[in-house]
Design a protein that fits this description.
about 525 residues, alpha+beta
């Protein structure tokens, strides 16, 4: 029996617009006094009308374009109806039938490479820019849509200096109405490594776009995986079952050259070993699926990995006990208990029809022209994987160093400023990247120009003076008579060997091109 995880992801990202999605309240809610950042609109009071935030809509579309989505030229908001204490209106303004962006994709490292030793070395994390050579896996993006965030429930035992009744939950509506983008994938993930790789890449794209800090500790990026298992098992068939499957009872062996046969009721395969009666026997592969589980509101890569690993173990053990399979009505919503490192049941999972979606009557439908979409696309900055490719192509930087640099947007900006200065000073950019990655530098107090100047001075101090270089070159010639003879007899490659010997004797302080010139003079 084999168990294969099938995982899909919903990721919620709060946008850092100045105001909320449908009102003028500040969108920055973190750390504010509870319920101090509200108005009649985001509290859902009678008669209050929503006005959509143009910037939030544009940023949602930009993210969709960055994820290779198609933009729906005609779109609209809908009401998602459900009761929950942190939902002030009794419904959420969201999108369902016509989201802003659909049918996108993103390329990640992939399971096959994520588990190989090589993936931890030279090219870990950058397979996404080279899928055509088999270095990545495509994850399909179902939709990128816009909605408003809910309020936040605070339990009494989690509130500092709380003096009120115990065992109660309080609601803070400061977050209610904050612009929220939801990115929904297809169930294309087969491992927790793939999930984490995707989430890290998505977070980086969001930060490069400048539309959100995607800070999971502050709740501005929240993760909600859905998981179940594909169960594959082989079932042996009796002679009567073989007959009922349409295989001739007198000849259960396969036709010549065949390893399986499709009976119309499943694929049968003959086994190599013989039964006690000396006859081949048949097995049929049966596939079933465990019930779906959605895990809500996880706020770290570590916890999402732990939660999924726990669910894989739990669902496989549960299936062996109960044989319960996926069917309509047995979806479940779980939470993840970080302290106990286990998922806990919250409620049965609703279907789409349970939300009774219908068009939001207070927000008109939206139409986007091709020129508007093209203009938004032109505002997308160079994204991380494109930077990695450019660094390697233009500056011969090691792939591992390029990946580390682009993983930090501020470091990448610092590096590019320093690289421009290094080119002017004739200092190798490939050495500069090694310094940034491998040395601990106080970037806050060392601007890129000063860093390059410092490196140039160090290089000049380390380089041998002409007299010293000439002495080292003479030593290399004296110690390598064979290479000298070969060079003088026309084997030009021997000069590079001698340059290498100069570098070895000088412990890297010699300038290779200058050393080659001095050697040529000595060997005339």
């Amino acid at each position: 029996m084999q168990f294969e995880p099938i995982i899909g992801l919903e990721v919620h990202v709060e946008l850092k617009t100045k105001s909320k999605m449908f009102c003028g309240c500040p969108a920055d809610h973190f750390g504010r006094e509870p319920n101090s950042n509200t108005c009649p609109v985001c509290l859902g009071l009678p008669g209050a009308l929503p006005v959509p935030n143009k910037k939030a809509v544009e940023w949602c579309i930009m993210l969709g374009l960055a994820l290779n989505c198609r933009v729906n030229e005609d779109s609209y908001f809908e009401r998602k109806n459900y009761f929950y204490p942190d939902l002030p209106k009794g419904y959420q303004i969201s999108q369902y039938a016509k989201p802003f962006c659909v049918n996108g994709s993103i390329v990640i490292l992939g399971t096959s490479r994520a588990r190989t030793p090589e993936s931890k070395g030279a090219d870990a994390g950058v397979a996404q820019h080279d899928e055509g050579q088999g270095r990545g896996k495509t994850i399909r993006i179902n939709r990128v849509h816009m909605e408003e965030d809910t309020g936040k429930l605070l339990h009494s035992d989690q509130i500092p200096n709380y003096q009120g009744p115990k065992d109660v939950s309080l609601v803070d509506f400061n977050r209610s109405g904050v612009p929220l983008v939801e990115i929904v994938t297809e169930p294309d993930f087969k491992s927790t490594e793939e999930v984490v790789d995707y989430l890290k890449k998505l977070q980086l794209i969001v930060r490069y776009l400048g539309i959100s800090d995607a800070d999971m500790e502050k709740g501005s990026m929240r993760l909600e995986p859905t998981i179940n298992l594909k169960v594959t098992e082989s079932v042996s068939l009796s002679r009567s079952e073989i007959t009922s499957e349409g295989v001739m009872p007198g000849d259960p062996a396969l036709p010549a050259g065949r390893s399986s046969i499709d009976s119309g009721q499943g694929v049968l395969s003959a086994q190599a070993r013989m039964t006690d009666e000396g006859q081949n026997y048949w097995k049929r592969k049966e596939v079933s699926y465990t019930p779906l589980v959605e895990i809500k509101n996880i706020n770290s890569f570590k916890f999402v990995k732990q939660a999924l690993e726990y669910e894989i173990k739990r669902q496989s053990e549960e299936f062996l006990k109960t044989r319960e399979q996926k069917k309509a009505g047995n979806k479940a919503t779980m939470g993840y208990n970080e302290a106990k490192k286990m998922t806990v049941l919250q409620r049965s999972k609703e279907e789409a029809h349970d939300y009774r979606y219908f068009p939001e009557p207070d927000v008109p439908p939206m139409h986007f022209t091709k020129s508007q979409i093209s203009n938004l696309k032109s505002q997308i900055p160079e994204l991380p994987e494109a930077k990695v490719v450019r660094y390697i192509r233009d500056w011969s930087i090691k792939e591992t160093e390029a990946v580390i640099i682009v993983e930090n947007k501020n470091l990448a900006a610092y590096f590019e400023t320093a690289a421009a200065e290094a080119l002017q000073k004739d200092y190798p950019v490939s050495k500069l990247s090694g310094v940034l990655v491998n040395k601990r530098l106080d970037f806050a107090n060392l601007n890129p120009k000063d860093l390059v100047q410092k490196l140039v001075q160090e290089k000049e101090q380390e380089t041998l003076k002409h007299e010293e270089l000439a002495e080292v070159c003479r030593e290399a010639v004296e110690q390598n008579e064979r290479a000298v003879s070969e060079y003088q007899n026309g084997k030009k490659e021997s000069l590079q060997f001698l340059v290498g010997q100069v570098m070895k004797i000088s412990r890297g302080r010699a300038e290779p091109q200058l050393a080659a010139s001095v050697l040529k003079d000595l060997l005339k």
